[in-house]
Amino acid sequence: MSWIDALPTATVLLALLYLPGWVGLRLLGVRGVLAVAGAPAAVVAVLALGAVVLDVVGAAWTPATVVLLLAVVLGLCALLGRVLPPGTVSLPPLTPRSWALVGIGLAVGAGVQAGAYLNGMGRPDAVQQIYDPVFHLNAAETVLRTGNASSLGGLDPMYGSSTGVFYPAVWHSMVALGARLSSVVVASNTLMLLTGLVVWLVGIVALARAVAPRDGAVAAVAPVVASSFLIFPANLLVLQGMFPYCLAIALTPGAVALVVGAVERSRAGEPLEHAIPTVRGERPLASTVRGALAAVVACAGVVAAQPAGLAVLGLFVLPYLGQVGARRGLRQWRLGHRATAVVAAGAAPAVALALVVAVYTVPALQAMAAFPAAEGSRRLALFRGLTFSTTIGWTSPWANVVVAALVLIGVVVAAVTVRTRWLAVSWLLTLGIYVVAAGPNNVLRDLAGFWYKSADRTFAMLPTVAAVLGAMGVVALGRAAQRLLAESRAGARHGRTRDWLAPLVMVGVLVLAFVTSGAFRYDERQNGWTAWGFQPDRILTTAHASTEELTMIRSLDDVLPDDAVVLGDPRNGAALVQSVGGAVAFIPHVNPSSWDADQSYLKAHFGQLRSDPKVCEIVAADHIDYFYADDSGPEAWEEASPGLYDVDTSTGFELLAEGGPARVYRITACG
């Protein structure tokens, strides 16, 4: 399959991500890049809630019902748009030239990464053979097969006999829609690329615009800086495939930009030099209501993608709201409004304190904080957080040092500027959470419980804020060079040259960063982080299936009936019969916490089916007609599932397909 063949799927998913959300936000009064960047988060919020509603009313998750759902929501947006007083939420306009530069920046940022990912994957139907993607691929196939995309029980088949399981299913619901044009694997790969190359980068542009609303240079540079990082999206999204959480990260900058735009619009009447002026004829209160509604929906989308998105938003939004609240509180205090001042200044800190207390008191968060996670050195984590070096790979840890320096310059610029000081605080908090999560176990590390104390999960948040700060550093250097020339005698004689110096310096700095980092670590991005997840002979961990085995699994769609239930060790390729082969994997994931009693029993005793009557009882009760055999895996796999290895298939089994070391049999021994 070629990448051209995947274009219809990509087009549909791109339209799903942007078109309904953009129209809805426009109807609510959101304009410009805020409406574009906030659209995916709004769509995710609607799809997540809509899937629950459709499940409650007994309607299947199909393109028709989703279109109807979106039409109803857009109708409500149109009604609200007419009922609410006139008002808009937007940022100061940029010149066409500035927007052209932003477009170039986006193209460069996306292009640098896209080439590595497409070449590293090889083909759009390449199977991601890492721990998390195996689950997510089968979860998407479950939604496609059952027509239930609800996060409240829709993925129950992934958990054996469990019912009412909560799991954020909006990612899988979108993959299921795209899979109708191709396959689950193609739709998942396509949505993964759109998430990292479009949703995230467009969101970063919007965040840069919100941070520096009258400076298009920051927005143009930010996506280029973003393309220099590997922890996100290369590591966490493309390699590890933590799709719901990565979707939340990708949605965050657009949602935060919408929050900033909405709050700044509400402050239009305040005596602040950076407040965004209102459009003549609008009512500030109306703009506030419209902006607040849009921002809440977008933030809800981040949380709906993955609940940890709430903590991600907290690190980005609370510093901003805290800064705004502190200034407003101080002003109210001076006016004698003591109670109002306390509420304004204390609201954001109170929410932050509540999140901290929740980690240590809420049972679900305590369980997440107790999750076993590898310990490490905080000093090494601080070094990596400052240099954006990787835990594995072959490029020098100093490869991205130019960008690292630009980010630090941006931190200083942000810290000394009233408007952007919150961004420096957000960077510091995010860096701190990563360092704590990557360190040794103690009470302090439990603060990272929202992220299962995972170093990679916390580190992956840093590029979003660092991209904007790095862009601010680039622009600051260019403007500083321009000022120095202007103050010199040569500058006075060469005014035209002086005007071009700032952009030349900016481009020069970016080229320096690109060249000294090996094209932003292109080779490692392609042949490391991408190939490690998709190329069977280069999988970072042991591959679940070889190339020959995958060919056989793909052929099962023509060999087995659609409702065929296949038993096998999920580690040796059997789990892939569901997302790749069109059958149902009796054990669809390698995580023991998702196995029920029947699954665990067969893993231990299936090979005794001729002497243990309970085996055939389970096989009959669970409608298992097929067995996936592959004894070529590591010894540890056999030790974990002894009943599924060295099974005597000489009698009682009918060979149906084979590829590489794997074989698929019809079970006849149980009658």
UniProtKB/TrEMBL annotation:
The chain crosses the membrane at residues 6-25, 32-54, 60-79, 99-118, 191-211, 217-238, 245-263, 292-318, 339-362, 398-415, 422-439, 459-480, 500-520. It comes from the Bacteria. Keywords: Membrane, Transmembrane, Transmembrane helix. The keyword Repeat does not apply. Pfam families: DUF6541 (PF20176). This is Uncharacterized protein.
